[in-house]
Amino acid sequence: MKNRDNTANRFLSKDVAASLSIIIARIFHAVNWFNVAAIFPLIALDFENDDIALLGSISAAFFIGVGIFQIPAGIFAAKFTPRSSAIFGIALSSIAALLYGFSSEASQLVWLRFIVGAGMAFFFSSGIVLIARYASAKFSGFSIGLMNSAHSAELSGYLLGLLSPR
């Protein structure tokens, strides 16, 4: 009986660790979601655009990437695994976000932001499936709520930063 309890605790800790890693990845997901808007004034200065067309294109490319890749990401997750889809999505969006800092042309900014959006599409749905799978049936809704709260907590941090006195 003692061996069975030890095995149950080991599986419980793996499930908790997996859930925590998904929640932490969701925080990084949120950072990649909101990071570029904070530097819009700097982008406009660096690329010497008098209008906001470039900034609108960057935002639109991101949301188009998210929207277009929702269904292909679901098919990918169904064909392979939600885990591989989530890992691919976080890796893709993180690499594109990292390369964003090295961009020297406006078109690169737009394309990289599109790729970040595509990566977000691969992570989000798969992350929900995974966190619901790792939580017990009794706590699956709570776990999904925690995952979405991680995204909202990041947004709250940005709002507090904007409202803080300088």
TrEMBL record:
<dbReference type="Pfam" id="PF07690">
    <property type="entry name" value="MFS_1"/>
</dbReference>
<keyword id="KW-1003">Cell membrane</keyword>
<feature type="transmembrane region" description="Helical">
    <location>
        <begin position="20"/>
        <end position="40"/>
    </location>
</feature>
<protein>
    <submittedName>
        <fullName>Putative major facilitator superfamily MFS</fullName>
    </submittedName>
</protein>
<feature type="domain" description="Major facilitator superfamily (MFS) profile">
    <location>
        <begin position="18"/>
        <end position="166"/>
    </location>
</feature>
<dbReference type="GO" id="GO:0005886">
    <property type="term" value="C:plasma membrane"/>
</dbReference>
<feature type="transmembrane region" description="Helical">
    <location>
        <begin position="109"/>
        <end position="132"/>
    </location>
</feature>
<keyword id="KW-1133">Transmembrane helix</keyword>
<dbReference type="InterPro" id="IPR036259">
    <property type="entry name" value="MFS_trans_sf"/>
</dbReference>
<keyword id="KW-0813">Transport</keyword>
<feature type="transmembrane region" description="Helical">
    <location>
        <begin position="52"/>
        <end position="78"/>
    </location>
</feature>
<dbReference type="GO" id="GO:0022857">
    <property type="term" value="F:transmembrane transporter activity"/>
</dbReference>
<dbReference type="InterPro" id="IPR020846">
    <property type="entry name" value="MFS_dom"/>
</dbReference>
<keyword id="KW-0472">Membrane</keyword>
<dbReference type="InterPro" id="IPR011701">
    <property type="entry name" value="MFS"/>
</dbReference>
<keyword id="KW-0812">Transmembrane</keyword>
<feature type="transmembrane region" description="Helical">
    <location>
        <begin position="85"/>
        <end position="103"/>
    </location>
</feature>
